[in-house]
Predict the 3D structure of the following.
Amino acid sequence: QKEVEQNSGPLSVPEGAIASLNCTYSDRGSQSFFWYRQYSGKSPELIMSIYSNGDKEDGRFTAQLNKASQYVSLLIRDSQPSDSATYLCAVKGRTGTASKLTFGTGTRLQVTL
Amino acid sequence: DTGVSQNPRHKITKRGQNVTFRCDPISEHNRLYWYRQTLGQGPEFLTYFQNEAQLEKSRLLSDRFSAERPKGSFSTLEIQRTEQGDSAMYLCASSLGGTGTDTQYFGPGTRLTVL
């Protein structure tokens, strides 16, 4: 079982729709969760971070965390063509262990006109 | 620009040559990380420093790889006797350790091609 799993996609949504990206993780003790956006040939750019169960909203983005189900999601409202990118889910281990992030393989999002 | 910077941005080398990459973190950040990313995969952790101390190394970091952060500021990653399998994007990230969030911010990466 991979430590962080994401559907590789592509996930295709029409402009203006809601895109829903999902991620599951295996380490139940994980404490911090991040979503990064990566355009082709570029480096990851932080979109959202979430640490507690529930929802966290930032503009058009909402991150959702359910630690009991070991599940993190990212919702993008009013999707724009500029949102077309690969979205990486990253998980940081429990407090006191290494600071490293473990990434999923990413979900490629395509927003169509 | 006060973000993470990396040099060079691209490096093409022949198999067997040594290469060195440099990373300059965000100025107040005391933690620095190296990751490697191949096509279609997420970044994979290689190593990280807190100030000048190298606190963790991945099993991916073979003895051909060495990283330093001599004064707790910039860091270098050297690959000796490069192999074609080393071709990848090498990413550096930094964070302000000791805070609750410890969010990592990535530099633009160095793309290595080994011929």
Notes: Chain A touches chain B at residues 4, 8, 32, 34, 36, 42-46, 49, 51, 88, 90, 92, 98-106 (CB under 8 Å).
